[in-house]
Structure prediction request, 357 residues.
Amino acid sequence: MKHPRLKSLSPNTSGVILMIVLWVLVILTVLVVGLGRKTSIDLALTKNRIGKFRSKYLAWGGLVYTIEQIRRDTEDPEAKAYDTLYECGIRLEKNQSPEDLFKKIPLGAGYFEVAYKSAGTKNILYGLQDEERRLNLNAINVQNYKIFYHLLTLLDVEDRLAETIAAAVADWQDTDNEVTNKPWGAEDDYYMGLAASFHVKNSLFDHVQELLLVRGVTPEIFNKIKNYITVFPKSGSMQINFETASEVVLRAVARGTAPLAGADIGDADNLARKMLRLRAGNDGKDGTGDDRSVEMNDLGLVATEQAIFLTMSNNRTKVAQFLRVTVTGVDQTTLVKSRLEAVVERSSLTVVFWQRH
Prediction:
């Protein structure tokens, strides 16, 4: 049987088929590359999620470890008698440093660190922060609100605005409806007159961010002062640790106290400088092993400075009751980090505040 002969394709037809084949190949290539890229992204995202999960629990592990260090310090009568920048809420053995306790501590598939940037200098210090180095918003009242006023002006808040905010902070938590230092403070009439009205709290601050509700406080001002303020403890008088407070806080307390001691701002600033110089020890650096206790007889004070120091000492403490822990957990495989910040009450070893960053 004879087979029918196939007709040969014309050059034009062959060209069309070739073009179609090439376009199919291009489309398939694009699809393959796209799918491969999507798969690569999905894998990277999965690795990141796993790294975030691990680093989060590494940070929590670091917090548990740190609470154990606080417990050891609290149970040692000698160690718990004072807290400094170098040895705050912890007990160091001979020849041991805070870095030994808190730098790159291995755990599981990664490690954690407990460290913070010091207010003002931004130096990295390993260890804990006591809340007593900060001004307690809950201790500000009509008698001492000028201390907060001076903190604000030292951080470049305009004078009249600083006066308004300081008086309004006292009004926010007092139980009366009397405006502090009219016309600067603010009670219920002011807040109810706002477009988005609300009642004044007339109770203690629960969180520092609550300050954003107070008359005159803007996010910019809050960011300037947030590292210098606390809400712990929730009640009681203002307690400042001279061994750990920043220059700004020491100057604010000294300036706010100066009129009661018959002195002026210049005397207050000179006193704060002498306190910082003595505290830093022979190396002139805060947070090192040779830090010294701030004792009046070692400061070389003139009469007015001495009067301020004695008046300030009514609000002095050497022992931290609340300790701030900043832990960074790092997953070694992905290098993903998680940061956890918590405040621990020393007496009960209870976490009274925490947040993840």
In short: The mean pLDDT is 91. The longest helix spans residues 11-74.
